[in-house]
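subagent[fold] <- orchestrator: predict structure for attached chain, return tokens only, no commentary.
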Amino acid sequence: SKEDAGASDFALTRQQIRERVEKLHTPFMTQSNALFRKNLSFQYKRWATNCCLILVPIFVLILVFGIQLLLESLILSKNTIRCPYCGPGGDDYADYYCNKQSSCAQYFFPNSSRQDFIN
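subagent[fold] -> orchestrator:
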């Protein structure tokens, strides 16, 4: 039939298929170079997004650091002795931890050296 004759004209042998595949095979470095250049071009067009990806985390860190400094200046600027274990004292936890002493300094430091830490 006519269809079979047309199909046999386009039928390829295994050797011909292998040759075509070998011609189409692209080396790894060529593929990676093309992919790199494509991504570089794509990222260059998206410069605003890339700037935001870099600047927003930096802005958030600066904001958090500023809030931390503000809170430290407001809360920790008071003239109190802060115990590293129980805080500024005067609450239930500090009383329990420091055996109901009037301050942590009295519990942790002997009488002779306490004046060095109060001032």
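orchestrator: received. Logging for downstream: Helices lie at 2-10, 14-24, 28-45, 47-75, 92-97, 104-108, 111-118. The chain has a mean pLDDT of 76.
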